Amino acid sequence: MTPLAKLLEAALFASARPIATDELASLDPEVSPAELQSALDEIREHYDVEGHGVELTELGGGWQILTRAEYTEAIERAQLAARPARLSGAALETLAIIAYRQPISRTEIEEIRGVAVGGVLKSLHERGLIDVVGRAEGLGRPLLYGTTPVFLEHFALRHLEELPRGDELAIALRLPPREPEMASAVDENE
Amino acid sequence: MTATFSEPAALESGFVVELTAFTGPLDLLLSLIREEQVDIYDIPIARICEQFVIRIRSLGLNEAAEYLEMAARLLRIKAQMLLPRGDELAWEDPRAELVRRLLEYQQMREVVDVLERRGEERRNQFARAYLPQQAAPPQAPLALSLAELLSAVDRVLRAARQPNMHEIIPRAIDIPGAISIIRSVLTLRARIMWTEIVERGAEPWQILSTLLGLLELAKLGELRVLQPKPFANVEISRDAASEAA
User: Fold this and answer.
1) Cβ within 8 Å, pair A155-B130
2) Cβ distance B215 to B170 under 8 Å?
3) Which of B122, B130, B131 to mutate to test the interface with A (most CBs of A within 10 A)?
4) Residues B213, B182: contact at Cβ < 8 Å?
5) What is the residue range of B237's domain?
6) Is A27's Cβ below 8 Å from some Cβ in B?
7) According to the model, what pLDDT value does residue B61 have?
8) ipTM of the complex
9) For A55-69, how does the pLDDT look when each residue is reduced to its tens digit (9 = 90+)?
């Protein structure tokens, strides 16, 4: 590996969190973005081609070295590390709504989910997956919630745009093709 | 009738299973629509409504509040569907708002599937664990002479010998005194003003004593206190009843 790739590898190994590209760049002020990217590619190829137990992953706005999934069970069985608890269905629904509609208030989330979400919001906030990003104008100035970098890390997303766009979902909020009359009724109700 | 198909299952499955099975009324409604294989744009509202009510019967009441609200909504739509349509062109489908919400919910559930898959993939990979907080370095070994130690002990003992004293200020309020003054004044005059029994330039404790004495006597029924309006002078008079007695 090139010296730059080795430097990056050491930094990635030392860090417990994903390291953003500009943070990696600060390791060596001489380095250009293109050189940085090729060094990262070099590390990734090195791991993939030579067959390492870890891989280099881009997520949460940065880069992180992760163990390969095939070794997870053995590691967990030996009690060297434990997988985090799965999120509940209610938590995932709430996160999905926040991810797409942020900044969004509790009331708006409850309108979509049809249930109270106060407790879910609290536990998501405690896990650092969401944060208060502002306050809405209007009555009571309700808190507005948004997702955090931890959210991206948790779902191994590079950025929010990696989630399917609204029009890519199988059932988008589009007009039903067969009944144009009903579609107009939907619009009027909005 | 379709009612027979889910009722036993719903009753047997009971409370906890139902709670974890559905994340909310829209979730339950969507699953019914799938089970019944009906068109989401043309929901047979009477049938779905009936199924919905059967299913929520197995839920505890506290949790079911949101489901009951949905049941009421379904019943209302069902009633609206039964009304004569009149002008077919101007007719608005009473199900439209529900369909919009269901589609929105369904869309969100698709995102949930994506998140669930991505989350599970990430869950199966470990990052470098967070380093625990570095333990504080051990204290350097003690390096001091016996004299230093003894003088330190001496300092501690001298500091400890100073007793922790609190100065207790006696309550300077003299209510019995104030009461006897007010009583003697009232034996001379039937009616007196507050400003007359409190001297100008009186100490706070004197004013307070007089006030408390006054309230005490009023409580005992020996006198009446009358203030015509807020912050006005207070008129104190012998109580007519106690005077008669």
Assistant:
1) no
2) no
3) B122
4) yes
5) 175-244
6) no
7) 53
8) 0.78
9) 999 988 899 999 999
